[in-house]
Design a protein that fits this description.
With 208 residues, this protein is an alpha+beta fold. It contains eight helices and ten strands. The mean pLDDT is 87.
């Protein structure tokens, strides 16, 4: 585990903190589609992404889910951090978008590291800033952009996490993420294909 932590987080944290992460943390592998956190659950440990992508969503009062942001390598979810520190129930849903590997850190060390390690404080502050920026972008997309613009933005974000340029989501999955119907998404995807921006394949999309 020592080598994994140094490889993926050595550029972020000092040696003493890396040693503590190795001592107190544990590595967990999750499969694509696996739920990590659900609304109403207590979060007992804070995840840092070693590899893969995690999707974080918010659920409205009618059971619909709204995509907030994705977590990539060496990132964490500050909304989970907030729940950990305040010992309150989760208000978000986190799902493995791809197969992923996580470093789970115990709650009891969070506050201690904030006072002891400058690199940890900087990491947490930057994470809060990054996640807030992404949430604001999501709100802007909903409030000010048409569905075709939201879809193109969504595909652009998804393509960032694809190793081969393929976005492996069904039309229904995309519709669920964007809080609309499959019929609307299928029509807009066909238009994007006709415009030469994407190429539709079976259960996947090639971003051109």
């Amino acid at each position: 585990m020592e080598e994994i932590i140094k490889e993926h987080f050595g550029f972020l944290f000092e040696k003493e903190l890396l040693d503590e992460m190795e001592k107190y943390g544990r590595i967990k592998s999750v499969k694509s589609g696996e739920n990590l956190v659900n609304v109403g659950e207590y979060i007992r440990s804070m995840p840092l992404v070693i590899s893969g992508t995690i999707k974080v969503m918010r659920e409205d009062g009618e059971g619909y889910e709204l995509l907030l942001y994705f977590l990539d390598r060496s990132e964490t979810c500050t909304m989970m951090m907030d729940c950990c520190m305040a010992n309150k129930k989760s208000e978000i849903i986190a799902i493995a978008e791809t197969d992923a590997e996580l470093l789970l850190l115990p709650i009891k060390k969070m506050e201690e590291w904030l006072t002891r390690y400058k690199s940890w404080r900087n990491f947490i502050f930057k994470s809060y800033n990054d996640r807030m920026h992404e949430i604001l972008k999501s709100l802007d997309n909903i409030a000010f952009k048409k569905m075709d613009e939201r879809l193109l933005h969504y595909l652009t974000e998804k393509q960032k996490f694809s190793k081969n340029g393929l976005i492996k989501n069904t039309h229904q999955q995309i519709a669920d993420d964007l809080h609309t119907s499959r019929v609307v998404i299928s029509r807009l995807l066909k238009k994007l294909e006709n415009d030469g921006k994407i190429k539709l394949q079976r259960n996947s999309i090639q971003y051109i």
